[in-house]
Amino acid sequence: MRASAYPLIDADEAASLVLERTPVLGTERVTLEHAAGRVLAEDVAATGPLPAFPSSAVDGYALRAADAGTTLRVLGESAAGRPFDGSVTAGTAARILTGGVVPDGADTVVMVEDTRLDGNHVKVPAELVAGANFHQVGADVTGGQTVLHAGMHLGAAEIGIAAATGHAQLTVRRRPRVALMSTGDELVEVGSTPGPGQIPDSNRWALLAALREAGAEVEVVGIAPDEAGALRSFVTRSLEKADALVTSGGVSVGTHDLVKPLLESLGTVHVGRVKLKPGKPFTFATLDGGKVAFGLPGFPVSSLVTFEVFVRPALRKMQGLVHLQRPTLPVRLGYDARPTAERTEYQRVTLRREGHDLVAETTGSQSSSRLLSLAGAHALVRVPAGDQILKAGTIVEAMVLSLP
Ligand code: AMP
Ligand code: MG
């Protein structure tokens, strides 16, 4: 082992360095069919008001509130999409259906349940209020109003609004194209039988899932050997079409850890060691052409925790999202948490509700090789560096992965 030349950087400082140097990607137009999960790149305004016409909220009769308590002659019908083309005058009404246009002259709608029809005449209640039971023009959205904002994640409601305001296509940020590579002579493809000293390449599948879930388009490069020349050609080839490179393994200070010197030769290493547990050897570099490279540690938990702390926020920035971090919540420790001197630690926990509190329970051994500590975890509890045990009952901040 040789000592690392890289300074140990505070975890928050490393996270800021990564975000500062991560670019926001360009835009493309997509049809609504392909908009789900994308991030809007421009504000979207309504071309006109919604509703665009006074629209009945019920089935009933459109009339003048001044005619309350009388019997009115029914002139015709206004159904959804088939307006009545006359006017309602004193002593008359038009039958109306939900979504139908309230005819000219009418200022209120009465529900069919509150009326009595006799042939062509309808008896209406004695108390009527103008403006009742229909939606006024522009009640939901005014013409020109910005209905969606740049930086919004497009989900079902946002896409529905785009459609309702007449936008068949939206301008969204490009998805980050990420080349994903595992490194290590010990790795074999999952499913083939490992020989002596070999293990399945599990990080590839874990990181592929994490990257896709975070919105990336992933090119899986495969397993690069622990040999400088071969690693270099894997990396340079995979970077041709990628915005970002994510590697796992090969970033600690053993003699087979070749990723840092390689990234150093291809660009600038900004983060080479972090005061973080797990994830001390996390490496971040910028490469020619505005590309970014994330060298994640090989231990399965370390690679996924550093993904959450550094890579996910960067992918969110690339996609133009406003909120870069996962939500955090204060939680009550259900166990005594032992901090690590000098390093911020993310401990894996499950959460349960107790009254108004969320109580965090440890997932057991927090060894960075033990991926079971992360499987089923609801949150990463942030334990600040220190030497004092945080007693059960202490309120700490947790990065929420999924709520129970
Ligand atoms: P490294 O960071 O390369 O020193 O690897 C640290 C530990 O993580 C070693 O025990 C490796 O065998 C293991 N490891 C590295 N890459 C992977 C991978 N892709 N899948 C599973 N374990 C890995
Ligand atoms: Mg290795």
End-to-end Cα distance, whole Å, is 43 Å
> Main beta sheet, described?
6 strands, mixed
Instruction: State the secondary-structure class.
Output: alpha/beta
What average pLDDT do the residues reach? 97
Helix percent reads 10-25%
Low-confidence stretches: none
Number of strands: 27
- Radius of gyration over all CA atoms, rounded: 31 Å
Strand arrangement within the widest β-sheet reads 8-5-7-6-10-9
- Gross morphology is elongated
Q: How many helices?
A: 6
Present as ligands are: adenosine monophosphate, magnesium ion
In what range is the share of β-strand residues?
Answer: 25-35%
Describe the structure.
The protein has 404 residues and is α/β, with parallel strands linked by helices. It has 6 helices and 27 strands. Strands 8-5-7-6-10-9 form a 6-stranded mixed β-sheet, with no helix packed on it. α3 runs parallel beside α6. The mean pLDDT is 97. The site of adenosine monophosphate has 19 residues, from α3.
What characteristics describe this protein?
404 residues, binds magnesium ion, six-stranded mixed sheet, 6 helices, elongated, binds adenosine monophosphate, 27 strands, alpha/beta
